[in-house]
Amino acid sequence: MAGNDASIDPTPTGAEWWRHAAIYQVYPRSWADADGDGVGDLPGITAHLEHLRDLGVDALWISPFYRSPQADHGYDVSDYQDIDPLFGTLEDADALVARAHELGLRLIVDLVPNHSSDQHEWFQAALRAEPGSPERARYLFRDGTGEGGLEPPNNWESVFGGSAWDRVAEHPDGRDDDPQWYLHLFDSSQPDFDWRNPEVGDMFEGVLRFWLDRGVDGFRVDVAHGLFKEESLRDQVRPEGAKGGATAGEEAGSMVERAALDEPMWDQPEVHEVYRRWHQVLAEYPGDRMMVAEAWTATAESMARFVRPDEYQQTFNFAWLLAPWSAEKFANVVTHTFDALEPVGATPTWVLSNHDVIRHVTRYGGGTQGLARARAATMTMLALPGSAYLYQGEELGLEQVDVAPEDRTDPSWLRTKDTDAPEIGRDGCRVPMPWSGDSAPFGFGPGTGQPWLPQPSGWGSLTVAAQETDPESTLAFYRRTLAARRDLADLPASVKVVVDGDVLSFTRGDLTVALNCGTADAALPDGEVVHASGPVDGTLPADTAVWVRG
Ligand code: GLC
Questions:
Q1: Sequence-ordered list of residues with C-beta below 8 angstroms from that of 367, at least 6 positions apart, any chain
Q2: Which atom of ligand 1 is the closest one to the Cα of 411?
Q3: What's the rounded Cα separation, in Å, for the pair 90 and 70?
Q4: pTM, to two decimals
Q5: Rg of the chain (C-alpha set)
Q6: What is the rounded distance in angstroms from the CA atom of residue 52 to the CA atom of residue 41?
Q7: Residue 284 annotated to the active site
Q8: Is residue 341 within 8 Å of residue 307, measured between CB atoms?
Q9: Are the C-beta atoms of residues 32 and 444 closer than 8 Å to each other?
Q10: What is the pLDDT of residues 284-310, one digit of tens each?
Q11: C or N terminus of the chain, fewer CB within 10 Å?
């Protein structure tokens, strides 16, 4: 490519680029659709990468694009070493990696090791094989309990609702007389591997190498606090009426509630041996490869165990995302994060939105106020030492969409919609990106039809094209913030946090960041305001953040 100054040299740099990176999550079904089938694809991503260069991020993480029946939209993988035809081909993946590197962007792929799809050849072979066979030993098959074995082996619940066990006899590909059940902490179509079987670890090492050989810069590891279960598979002890034994964390409300739960299905000590092995594999490759854990851990201390020097480079710090709009709560998260990570020498990560949670504009109340708060929280996050993860569409200020029941596709909705406790599901943060134009599909793909999840008719003013020309737009704000963030890279990697009433502030070298979570104007910190999330005129208005130098 002409004028390709930013191009990445894939030889070792020792720069540990991930320590101060802005990483943008692409949800491939919903970013850009090149072939016009209403679902995003890899050629669509490649064609739109300039958006990320112009935004000013360092890397992109792409949610799974592997061969998959799409029961959980790709988090149900049937072949870890191939691309689903819905998204393209391996050649398309190679072209995407190459183009990203040409543009100076690193590329992280998603790895799903806790479970496969029930269509994976190993699970299909296991269904055909006898109880006790080597094929069954790759997953967690057990006999049932109660009369005739008609009760599940234990009381664990699926994160998506209902029992975490299904009878083989009730699986479409199972035999009617099969006495066993299989464990799935997520959908019935996502059987959990038995990580105590070395074959599983060997298989995943091969998968890592397959993608590292193709030039990816790292992995986001799905459900990294999963994999191993307490060996006895004993019942979970949970208070009467408590919901979701197999909680993944995003539903647990807060780390404090989480810490009080008995969780024999999560965060077992054996998992760390796997990550030490993976660390070694990555280290064999040039170019500062990295991995980031999606580990919904119960405490900051347990989070820190994932980023010991010989394990993950990073782990998501979901406490930041779970915190409500409160100076004190935000301050607690920042303080606990540094306290927990400092002993292991890891740099923190920060995230406000992803494909599993309600978009942060909406979490903070929606509308004008929600957007003001979202910008302010984002600007605060982007000044904290460490890496920040952004989710597609947040740079446009998109809100959670209220997807009509008949259009919802999330397995957590499909599994619970007819129960007493229906879960609305995660479709509302996955509605395809609006790029241009006044009506659906807003440049998401060719044609005039609605994509796989319908876009709201009012999105015309939120498209990339519309916001690009407006200096007051959220897109312009993100670009300015990410550009200004580059000047912060050399500041100290620690902060001093102060809460004064409803104002959170922290200092980092000569930078002071202040965030007003209250309802009244507050005093501005001393110094020169170099960046603000909204209008600032002598005071710090409510729902506003500033960066002040000097
Ligand atoms: C992770 C993913 C989520 C998926 C689940 C099961 O939490 O982020 O989207 O449904 O794992 O793989």
A1: none
A2: 10
A3: 18
A4: 0.96
A5: 23
A6: 16
A7: yes
A8: yes
A9: yes
A10: 999 899 999 999 988 888 999 999 999
A11: N
